[in-house]
Design brief:
alpha+beta; 4-stranded antiparallel β-sheet; 34% helix
Amino acid sequence: MDVCNEIACAHSRGVLHRDLKPGNVMLGQYGETLVVDWGLAKVIGRGSEDTGSEPTLRPEAASGSGETLPGTALGTPAYMSPEQAEGRFDRLGPRSDVYSLGATLYCLLTGRAPFQDEDVGAVLRRVRRGDFASPRRVNAAVPRPLEAVCLKAMTLEPAARYASAKELAEDIEHWLADEPVSAYRETASEGLLRQWRRNPRAVALGAALVMVMAVGGVAGIALWQRAEQQRRYGQRLEVAYRDEQAAKHDAVTNLYFNRIALADREWLAGNVRNAERLLEECPRSLRGWEWDHLKQLCHAELVDFRGHDDEVWGVSYSRDGGLIASAGRDGTVRIWDSIGVRDPTSFRHRGPVWAVAFSPDARRVVTASGMRSDAGAVTIWDVATGREIHSLGGRTGSLARVTFSPDGSRVAASSGLAGRNEVVIWDAATGREVQVFREHDAPVSCVAYRPDGRLITSATGSNDDFDPGKKPGEVKLWEVETGRVV
């Protein structure tokens, strides 16, 4: 480092040494480093380079390559730069001295000069080619970073060497401080080892942290793999369960249709009881139209309800399907058990009954009766006792239709009486008239609530008896709360 710094100082003054070698480096009495023998020194830019004014070295001289001799090149062959060996004085510069400093470092690392031939001409030829063994081939103990520093300084092309002796000194100083050098790209393990030497505690802590992270990562991967295995196992179980349920459903469905087929065969054979038993064994969730059809066939003698003395003009099912109400021209309303009661409950009116409807709970029925020329009546009846609850008369006539609201709190009726083209709504509990809708210009033949009870639909229609002009009908939607047509 001292030699490099001294040469860097000389270069800063414009002076080239041109004969750097171990023999020209001395240690003083107090350990100071001295660079001597400046006989071939040259001030850059002063004078001409020719053999007449400079001592030169002749290749044919018999002297050893470690001596400075005159001839066609300047310097000591074993330590001179390739451009010196070629006699290219115009290419000499600070990088030429850097080469000689690298050759000197080579000697410190290996214990010998880079070139060992006794013949000067052979040495010069090898110098020009850069043909020398690397330091680690001579001494395997040479650290790789120092070898890289030495080889960079001795690169054949000047442009690839250190730009100055100071840069060479800085790289050597970095190596002495156990820091990375610019000439060598260390591996990760070498960098970790260097950090260990400089700060073993921090490196040990980092290594422990890496170990913990590695162990944690392995444990995390193991846990993830276990969770993934459990997830896949769960998926397999779910698929197996679905397959099992599907197989069970298929089996139950097949059994259902087998029973339907057997019931049909028994009915055809006249074994109605066996057919009914097979139908009752069918799961309720699978019963479709085919089940209903066979069930009806098994009760064919019960579904022909006979009890009215004249035409039947209105029928209604209770919501649960257990009761049937029928009304007709004979002025009676009859309540039938849908499974075949032969002596039904009946309500008697003064005139023909045009329409009948069950309340949602099937505990009441509402009827509409009357002739075209008379004021009709809307009546609410108790199904269990046959008692009249309310008579809502004087507003409707023939062709009237009635219905309960979905919650059973209101009764709506459409008027078929000429000149009373309206829909009337009563409170089912008190019999009080609540609303009247009068936007139609023809008798209202139909009325129905929407399932949520917020709207009412009404419709008009033509009839040969009551409307000879056969005026086209219309349908209106009404808001129950406001009475507004929507």
